[in-house]
Write the structure tokens for this entry.
Amino acid sequence: MGSAVVRVLLVCLPLAFGACRLTDILGGDGSDRVGTADAVALSADGRYVATVERDTVLRLRRVSDAAVVWTVTRDSGLAALRFSPDGSYVAVWTGARVRVLSTADGSERAAVQILSDSFDNMTETGDAIFSPDGRYIAVAAAQWRTEIRRTDGGSLVLALDSYGPGIVEGRLSGMTWLGLAFSPDGAAIADASGVVRIWGLPDGALAPTLPGGMGCLVFAPDGRRLVAGGGDSTLRVWDVATGALLRAMRDEDGGTVQPVAISPDGRFLLTNTAENAPYGGTQHLRLWNLDTGAIAQTLLTYQDYPASRATISPDGRQIVRLSGFSRHKRPVTVEAWDVETGAKLWETTLASADLACPGVTFRVLEGPVFTPDGQFVLAATNAGVWRVRRSDGHAATLLDMTRH
């Protein structure tokens, strides 16, 4: 996804939107001021930042020089944003459709219906992921169906329904949206809903079903292993080629344990355990040794609503976590730990819990994302976008969304 780190999108962490005005975009002179910001997203390679403004304007900017690459305007209905891992596409929610736009020129390459008249009360966004190579997008579509489509043209590849295993009216079926992950090469997609299934792409060939697994899924960087989370406090590591269960790792603190990221060398697994998921309570950020199945480090134990994201640096040396939720009086912070020792390296507060923009509740939107040179971390909420120096945590504001 722009690096060797394999990350999973937690669809249980909703995107949130602010109602503040954007000013001083990426250190600009103020001449390019825009209206209210409904969403913000960062590309995985740190090259682009996209914003939705006043529900009608989508802008793509380069992070390096703040230049506007393109602007798309619609009458209304623009909402959440998501970049493809390779940075070639950005998905935007427009009413009842997810539209896939080219980052090169803003042209529409695909559109997927996500809501039907009978499901018009289902307004959650964020239910879409791209394959690592950008060829496919998986979208939680209408009628409880997950569709895998080609990003260039939007043709349907697979449709996964909620009626149980098998073929239903010529469509592959299964309750897939509890957990979904593409393989690193984009040649397969896995789903978890009590069992784990791996579907070949584009032919839809189904590998043997793997028992157990609920929630998030993470492929190892080499694609040979698949880690499934679970509400039974157990992580399961599968051999993708043979279907053999390589290891079952139980978190003795109980609760729901979910994989977050695997180190580039495949040695370590980063997880988050919530003892009272999804309602907050005690949580644990842990690093596991995949070779032994033992917990290598417990990096953090905290009491919070699960509004946080974490990843492992492209060189495998640091773990970085972004968190914050003003409704629970949690400031936006970025923290870093050493992978080998578990020592905390630094912690930086990006925004206080009491924002200058009345009525705004910030939540984590995007990040942490490492810049291409690996020296900085980009972080974004609907309060702003920041660049944090990896060596010492020094932060600089790139985009301020708290000014009127």
Observations:
- The mean pLDDT is 75.
- DSSP finds no helices and 35 strands in the chain.
- The longest strand covers residues 188-200.
